[in-house]
Amino acid sequence: MNFPFHDKTLEGQHILITGATGGIGYAAAKAAVAAGARVTITGRNEEKLSELKQECGGGDVFAVRADLSKPQARDQLVEAAANEFGPITGLLNSAGIGGGDIVENLSEEDLRGIMELNYFSLVELTQLVYKGMKDKEKGSIVNIASLSGLRGTHGNSAYSASKFAVVGFTQAFALEAIEHGVRVNAVCPGYVDTEMGRNAIKSKGERNGRSYEEQLKLAKESIPSGRLTSPEEVANTIVYLLSDAAENIVGESVKISGGSVMR
Ligand code: NAD
């Protein structure tokens, strides 16, 4: 797939990307740099962060290792990013975890852990970044929710509820933020071909006594386009939402699912 933007699409922007060591965040960081932004990347895997920085050519990338479930780590991340590249103009909230189980087997640890990272940490990091955007009367925030944040998915109640929360937060906050020139949107992918997407297919297979290959085949058959979405395709939508081309797109939940949303 060709990169559909040019190197000035995000020129002058400083984008903070969480979950940058994961599939979607990694692809989004590369795309944002190719689109001319300076990017602060964060995740928990030091090696993956260095590898990504190198792949992006080094100069326009600042890497910070952080566990986003820790308030102090969030504070330090936002402060370090602003010191390195100046005010943050775009935020991609991509860090997230899956897991959980059918409701009768769902542990308190999973229930609270999923909500803690996917919802509370996302909101609290956003609060920190929003302050600076509001002062400048400009900014774009993209939250990665999920198709599971728009409709329940089997065996996925904790994750699904956390992503419904992200969509609700996105819509309500978008109304406040747009009064100050800041756009807030969500992206809702179906299955994406990343570690998380593959784990979701594997778990579903295990619950139904099927191998990964059998469950993958069923997953593809359930998608009208017949395939999983690539992380690069999600990244392209993210770059668009971060750019001025999406100037009047506010409070949306952009679905990328090969048509699964209609099934
Ligand atoms: P991934 O597992 O490849 O990446 C997840 C990222 O979150 C990693 O960088 C990981 O380090 C980070 N993370 C997890 N816990 C963290 C913590 N405590 N502190 C800091 N970072 C932490 O997953 P992905 O497929 O790239 O998913 C990115 C986002 O997209 C997630 O929010 C996920 O829920 C969402 N999503 C994924 C799919 C899919 O099929 N892959 C579908 C819909 C939505």
Characteristic key phrases:
binds nicotinamide-adenine-dinucleotide; about 260 residues; oxidoreductase activity; 7-stranded parallel sheet
Report on this model:
- The protein has 263 residues and is α/β, with parallel strands linked by helices.
- Helices cover 47% and strands 14% of the residues.
- The protein contains eight helices and seven strands.
- A seven-stranded parallel sheet has the order 3-2-1-4-5-6-7, sandwiched between helices.
- Helix 2 links the parallel strand 2 and strand 3 (61-65).
- Helix 1 packs across helix 8 (231-242) and helix 6 crosses helix 7 (212-222).
- It binds nicotinamide-adenine-dinucleotide.
- Belongs to the short-chain dehydrogenases/reductases (SDR) family.
- InterPro entries: KR_dom, NAD(P)-bd_dom_sf, Sc_DH/Rdtase_CS, SDR, SDR_fam.
- Its EC number is 1.1.1.-.
In a nutshell, what does this entry contain?
The protein has 263 residues and is an alpha/beta fold. It has helices spanning 23-34, 46-55, 71-85, 108-136, 157-177, 195-207, 212-222, 231-242, and strands at 14-17, 38-43, 61-65, 90-93, 139-144, 182-189, 253-256.
Describe the secondary-structure layout:
Elements: E1 14-17, H1 23-34, E2 38-43, H2 46-55, E3 61-65, H3 71-85, E4 90-93, H4 108-136, E5 139-144, H5 157-177, E6 182-189, H6 195-207, H7 212-222, H8 231-242, E7 253-256
Parallel strand pairs: 1-2, 1-4, 2-3, 4-5, 5-6, 6-7
Helix pairs in contact: 1-8, 3-4, 4-5, 6-7
